């Protein structure tokens, strides 16, 4: 009988801690380029972490921390919570901000179109008045 040791959940936590430390360092020391890269590519890393959690749950891969056994369900729950929070932080929240920005821009376009319609209506009325006066003058002069 061969014993297969799986470390998917351990790999998840190690990679998450590395990612969190890099994020924390970029935040504390205000490294703008690193922060921009993390915000831009963070969702890819979170997706990779999520896949590790799913494989760990499917393979029933718990971890023991310093000989202390944490209930498997709690390990999976916390891991999934971290993954969902990361998905919110790096994908859903920026998506919400983009949608709000696009909504504001569409509102501005709508206002500009309404103003353009009003200006075109005024222009048409003025052209009608000018044509009317030109036609009347032409008839009175003959």
What does this structure look like?
- By secondary structure, this protein is mainly alpha-helical.
- A hairpin with a 2-residue loop joins strand 1 and strand 2 (68-69).
- Strands 1-2 form a two-stranded antiparallel ribbon.
- The mean pLDDT is 88.
- The chain has helices at residues 8-28, 32-58, 72-141; strands at 64-65, 68-69.
- It starts with 7 loop residues before the first helix and ends with a helix.
- The longest helix is centred in the last third of the chain and has 70 residues, at 72-141.
**Distance between the amino and carboxyl termini:** 116 Å
Q: Characterize the largest beta sheet: strand count, sense, and whether it forms a barrel.
A: 2 strands, antiparallel
Number of helices: 3
User: How many extended strands?
Assistant: 2
Low-confidence stretches: none
User: What gyration radius follows from the Cα positions, in whole Å?
Assistant: 31 Å
Q: Order of strands in the sheet with the most strands?
A: 1-2
Q: Helical percent range? A: over 70%
Strand content: under 5%
Give average pLDDT, whole number.
88
Structural class: mainly alpha
- What's the SSE pattern? HHEEH
CA-based shape: rod-shaped
Summarize the structure.
The protein has helices at residues 8-28, 32-58, 72-141, and strands at 64-65, 68-69.
Topology summary:
Blueprint: H1 8-28, H2 32-58, E1 64-65, E2 68-69, H3 72-141
Antiparallel strand pairs: 1-2
Helix pairs in contact: 1-2, 2-3
Which features would summarize this protein structure in a list?
single chain, 142 residues, mainly alpha, 3 helices
């Amino acid at each position: 009988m061969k014993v297969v040791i799986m470390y998917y959940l351990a790999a998840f936590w190690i990679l998450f801690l590395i990612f969190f430390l890099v994020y924390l360092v970029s935040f504390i020391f205000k490294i703008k380029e690193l922060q921009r890269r993390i915000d831009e590519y963070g969702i890819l890393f979170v997706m990779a972490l999520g896949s590790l959690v799913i494989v760990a749950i499917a393979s029933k891969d718990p971890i023991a921390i310093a000989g202390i056994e944490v209930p498997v369900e709690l390990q999976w729950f916390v891991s999934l919570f971290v993954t969902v929070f990361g998905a919110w932080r790096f994908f859903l929240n920026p998506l919400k901000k983009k949608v709000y920005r696009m909504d504001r821009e569409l509102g501005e376009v709508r206002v500009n179109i309404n103003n353009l319609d009003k200006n075109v209506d005024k222009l048409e009325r003025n052209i009608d008045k000018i044509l009317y006066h030109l036609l009347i003058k032409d008839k009175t002069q003959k």
